[in-house]
Design goal:
This protein has helices at residues 35-45, 60-71, 110-113, 121-124, 137-140, 142-157, 179-187, 197-204, 219-232, 281-295, 299-313, 325-332, and strands at 3-7, 11-15, 29-33, 49-53, 55-56, 80-81, 87-92, 101-105, 130-134, 161-165, 192-196, 238-246, 252-260, 263-266, 270-272. By secondary structure, it is an alpha/beta fold.
Length: 342
């Protein structure tokens, strides 16, 4: 198994029970989650030596977040204490034609206020082979963007593989620099890039020719898009793009494609008809792809595993994908019935 570090923010997620409206209920359920933390948990569950690097406040909320990751076997020994608060987000699960929605309350969080030099990357990356980051942390503040760029440069200096999940969030890019200006500089240091068609358009400034609201996606467009990304960023060894055809908040068709330096691959397609929780499915894909690329001989196997891992995450409440390799491989091999195992 591989030694993988992730760097990014974790937040407290507050949601109403089931599919109620945000303030329809008199109570909110609390869990922790965040793109890179979600990946770290999934990789730990899959058997890797997984390390999460971040900045959290030295208060009971920050310590609870750290304990939650440690519970799943994630190494939290290089989490820096700083700032006054942990970010919060409110998540309302959609149903039928009512879309899910997220409201952020994360300004002034520990990682948003952290600056270059606050983390000892030499120590944080000791014994690590891989760094995974996303486009969420660079979006929250100019200083967090600088810290993310510092992280990927430090990883490259140690000859680590670097993966970037673009994760464009329109609500977060508020501090004055456009997303492509920031993300293109970060992606120049990456080996693996993941995202969806909107990420490529909004985070990299590349025209994708895809209408995401129609619910139908043309695979040929994704073949062209991945080729365009690799031409634009010749440092990349692989580009993976997820494909979500959204018929309703409850029903999606889910797949992904991958381009490497040898050609273009299409993954399996899943019709998901009873979504439990969409949040974290992209992170499950990223973790599954990292696991596949470090565990299997062929990129096609890695892609199949990643798509199946993310399909399974749609059935799990909360941010984390807790599916094991055995469970994911069963889906890869065709077990999609959901029948009880006795």
């Amino acid at each position: 198994m591989a030694n993988i570090a992730t760097f990014g923010e974790i937040m407290l997620r507050l949601s109403p029970p089931g599919k109620e409206l945000l303030f329809q209920s008199s109570r909110l359920e609390a869990v922790f989650g965040g793109g890179e933390a979600n990946v770290a948990v999934s990789l730990a569950v899959l058997g890797h030596r997984s390390r999460w690097v971040s900045v959290v406040p030295s208060n009971p909320v920050g310590e609870a977040a750290v304990r939650e990751l440690r519970r799943f076997g994630v190494d939290t020994g290089f989490v820096v204490r700083g700032g006054q608060r942990l970010g919060i987000y409110f998540a309302e699960t959609g149903a039928d034609v009512r879309a899910s929605q997220v409201i952020y309350d994360r300004e002034g969080s520990g990682i948003a206020e952290a600056k270059t030099g606050d983390i000892d990357w030499e120590a944080a990356f000791s014994g690590m082979d891989w760094l995974h980051i996303s486009g969420i942390t660079p979006a929250i503040s100019a200083s967090a963007a600088g810290l993310t760029l510092e992280a990927v440069k430090a990883a490259r200096a140690k000859n680590m593989t670097v993966s970037v999940d673009l994760n464009y969030r329109a609500k977060l890019w508020k501090y004055g620099r456009p997303a492509p200006e920031v993300m293109r500089e970060i992606v120049k240091h990456a080996d693996l890039l993941a995202g969806n068609e909107e990420d490529c358009q909004k985070a990299l400034g590349l025209a994708a020719g895809v209408e995401v609201t129609s619910g139908r996606l043309d695979p040929k467009v994704f073949e062209d898009l991945t080729a365009k990304v690799m031409t634009e960023f010749p440092n990349l060894a692989r580009v993976a793009v997820t494909m979500r055809e959204s018929e309703s908040a409850d029903g999606n068709r889910w797949s992904a494609v991958l381009r490497n330096r040898k050609g273009f691959l299409s993954g399996p397609s899943f019709d998901i008809r009873a979504i439990v929780d969409r949040i974290g499915t992209g992170d499950a894909f990223a973790a599954g792809l990292i696991h596949g690329l470090t565990s299997f001989a062929a990129d096609a196997e890695a892609l199949d595993f990643a798509v199946a891992a993310s399909a399974l995450k749609h059935s799990i409440p909360g941010d984390f994908n807790l599916s094991t390799e055995k469970e994911i491989l069963a889906v890869v091999r065709g077990d999609r019935s959901g029948r009880i195992r006795r």
